[in-house]
Design a protein that fits this description.
Blueprint lengths: L1 H17 L9 E6 L8 E2 L5 E2 L1 H12 L3 E6 L5 H6 L5 E7 L2 H4 L3 E7 L3 E6 L8 H4 L3 E5 L3 H10 L4 E5 L2 H9 L5 E5 H9 L7 E8 L2 H4 L3 E5 L4 H16 L2 H9 L8
Parallel strand pairs: 1-4, 1-5, 8-9, 8-10
Antiparallel strand pairs: 2-3, 5-12, 6-12, 7-10, 7-11
Helix pairs in contact: 2-10, 2-11
Length: 260
């Protein structure tokens, strides 16, 4: 009995000192980012990570009262690296979908914009499934846009998949693909508004079906880190309320990207 009491006392003393098993103080948060998805995330000529996602990452972690460490990661390995504990959270325009929620936990959204197709001006007179038949369409690999294109047009078109959005833009201007499918804001700000995009245009409707496109972009964490998810949700609400979010948004866009 005395031995049992001693064991209990030792366990309680350890819990008092270090807290519940697995609990963290989150004084430093390592954030996985892509760095190849302008204007949300990109690398400047001087080698600095910049963009809307980067500024949001810094703002929410600061609102938590913590320090941030940014970790660049290729998109197609971004969830596996989170699960392998290379970093603690992903802030990389990752859409909240049911399929991804099987692997990771998400915060509330921090923005929500539709997907769209782009093509060369005049190349397609009227958007329709028939008009896309036989076309070659570019898309970033392992994205919601890739899945939507595969599920809905995979039998009718040739799909070319790219590691980054910039690679897809290069093939579009070189004539190796007929259309691209991606987030409408990324296409507009990252390509159409630039000199190389002057001969291209949006075509077709806004694509927002939650089955493929989810309910907005959120911050992904490991499922066991519910305390971090809660802290990040509180931080998102805080920067939305104190004007920080709007200041960051207005730096990159002249419209509301948060959505309804």
């Amino acid at each position: 009995m005395k031995k049992l009491s001693l064991v209990v006392a030792v366990v309680l003393s350890v819990l008092f000192i270090v807290g519940p098993a697995g609990a963290k103080d989150w004084k430093k948060v390592r954030v996985g980012v892509e760095g190849a998805y302008p204007p949300f995330s990109f690398v400047t000529p001087s080698g600095k990570l910049d963009g809307f996602d980067i500024d949001i990452a810094k703002a929410v972690v600061k609102a938590m009262g913590a320090e941030i460490e940014l970790v660049a990661q290729d998109w197609d390995g971004i969830i596996p690296a989170l699960l392998a504990k290379k970093y603690d959270a992903i802030i990389a325009s990752m859409s909240i979908t049911e399929e991804r929620k099987k692997k990771v936990a998400f915060t509330n959204k921090y923005y929500n914009t539709p997907a769209k197709f782009i093509c060369k001006k005049g190349a397609i007179k009227k958007f329709s499934r028939e008009a896309l038949k036989g076309k070659t369409i570019g898309v970033q690999r392992a994205t919601i846009h890739d899945k939507y294109l595969t599920d809905n047009y995979g039998k009718d078109v040739t799909i070319k998949r790219y590691g980054t959005q910039d690679e897809a833009y290069l093939d579009l201007t070189a004539g190796r693909v007929d259309l691209l499918l991606a987030d409408s804001v990324a296409l507009s700000e990252g390509f159409l508004k630039k000199p190389e995009g002057k001969d291209y245009q949006f075509i077709g409707p806004d694509l927002t079906d939650e089955k493929w496109f989810g309910v907005g972009a959120g911050i992904a964490c490991r499922k066991e880190d519910t305390d971090l998810v809660n802290k990040l949700n509180a931080a998102i609400a805080k920067i939305r309320a104190d004007g920080t979010y709007k200041k960051i948004q207005d730096k990159y866009f002249d419209f509301d990207v948060y959505g309804k």
